[in-house]
């Protein structure tokens, strides 16, 4: 089954079924994002970080007002953080205690990577184009005898279980990949990979940073071992807050002691706060928790989830983004500009489109027209430019 189940696998992303419609029209929310209502600005850089909306801005303003004008605001912020954790768990369809907040994607990935027991000679399998934050977490374990296998996927636009079959063997402890690749927008079939390899005892660790906030996600259905992500992209929060999900069924197979241990990891903290040598860790993913998280980030996340999940709806957001992508592709065709990657809707992200912009004058043209775009591709001479739609 595809990671996105609301469309048939035979649909191309330019199929008429993805046309704009009244059902996916969210234009009334554009006023919440002043930066994109300016006539002189075309914002196509949301893969770096979407512009903030006024709902999140108001939540931050309220946080700051409380910080300077209220003697004891922290307990209220902590309560909102718990609410945000519950809303996030509901969005991902997982138990609340299977999620914990982290600083960012890197911390979440590393917490899981360093919790897997392995022997020298064990290996992990990654895609060559995987995000450096994910790859370096595994490379940091080479000194302990871990082999990092990387699949050359330069000519591929999609990964499923068959992609990994030739590289997984009896010494493989994990597969690491992004559900949506940051550099080309391919959407990998995580559920298929988990169904094939998890029964063999191979963990599947997923980076979902490019995925959260742009479509429905069902982690229970995917059956991943663990997933990590930041909340600063599709969820529209300030940098500094991420989350880690660990499947409750795999916790018993991990190292008992978390890689980072603090009071947030402990289930039996004495009431006098004098640390007891009789250490008992939480039996859930909360063993990876910190007591001090980015509360301003959690307050922002709570507001963002209310807007995206409850008020608009993730299915509508995804449909809107796919409609934008279709319109982009159809408009580019007469210009001879190609969108790279698979033409199948269930093999590409709803919001991230990579254009084959080979001429160096594109960068000059974009700057002159007030178009904000990812500079790494065009200005450094790479042949591709990532265009990411912002749902507002």
From TrEMBL:
Report residue spans for region: Disordered: 1-22
One MF term in the entry's GO annotations: transaminase activity
**So where does this one cross the membrane?**
none
Q: Where is the composition biased (Low complexity)?
A: 9-21
Q: Which residues form the Aminotransferase class V domain?
A: 77-349
Q: Which domain of life is it from?
A: Eukaryota
Could you tell me what this protein is called?
Aminotransferase, class V/Cysteine desulfurase
Q: Which UniProt keywords apply?
A: Aminotransferase, Pyridoxal phosphate, Transferase
List the InterPro entries.
Aminotrans_V_dom, PyrdxlP-dep_Trfase, PyrdxlP-dep_Trfase_major, PyrdxlP-dep_Trfase_small
């Amino acid at each position: 089954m595809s990671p996105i189940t609301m469309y048939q696998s035979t649909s191309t992303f330019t199929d008429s079924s993805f046309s704009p419609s009244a059902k996916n029209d969210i234009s009334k929310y554009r006023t919440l994002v002043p930066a994109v209502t300016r006539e002189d600005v075309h914002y196509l850089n949301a893969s770096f970080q979407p512009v903030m909306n006024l709902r999140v801005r108001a939540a931050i303003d309220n946080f700051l007002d409380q910080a300077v004008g209220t003697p004891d605001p922290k307990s209220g912020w902590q309560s909102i953080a718990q609410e945000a954790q519950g809303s996030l768990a509901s969005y991902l369809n997982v138990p609340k205690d299977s999620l914990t907040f982290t600083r960012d994607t890197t911390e979440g990935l590393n917490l899981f990577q360093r919790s897997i027991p392995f022997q020298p000679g064990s290996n992990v399998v990654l895609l060559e184009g995987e995000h450096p934050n994910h790859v370096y977490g595994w490379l940091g374990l080479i000194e302990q005898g871990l082999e990092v296998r990387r699949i050359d996927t330069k000519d591929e636009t999609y990964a499923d279980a068959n992609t990994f079959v030739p590289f997984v063997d009896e010494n493989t402890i994990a597969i690491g990949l992004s559900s949506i690749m940051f550099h080309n927008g391919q959407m990998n079939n995580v559920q298929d990979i988990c169904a094939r390899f998890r029964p063999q005892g191979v963990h599947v660790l997923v980076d979902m940073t490019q995925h959260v906030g742009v479509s429905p996600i069902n982690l229970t259905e995917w059956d991943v071992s663990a997933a990590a992500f930041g909340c600063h992209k599709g969820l529209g929060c300030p940098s500094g807050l991420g989350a880690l999900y660990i499947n409750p069924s795999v916790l018993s197979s991990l190292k008992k002691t978390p890689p980072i241990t603090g009071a947030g990891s402990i289930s039996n903290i004495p009431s006098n706060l004098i640390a007891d040598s009789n250490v008992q860790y939480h039996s859930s993913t909360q063993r990876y928790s910190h007591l001090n998280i980015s509360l301003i980030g959690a307050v922002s996340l709570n507001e963002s989830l209310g807007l995206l999940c409850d008020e608009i709806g993730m299915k509508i957001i995804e449909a809107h983004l796919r409609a934008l992508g279709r319109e982009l592709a159809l408009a580019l065709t007469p210009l001879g500009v190609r969108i790279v990657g698979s033409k199948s809707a269930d093999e590409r992200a709803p919001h991230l489109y990579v254009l084959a912009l080979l001429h160096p004058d594109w960068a000059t043209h974009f700057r002159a027209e007030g178009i904000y775009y990812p500079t790494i591709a065009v200005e450094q001479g790479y042949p591709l430019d990532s265009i990411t739609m912002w749902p507002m």
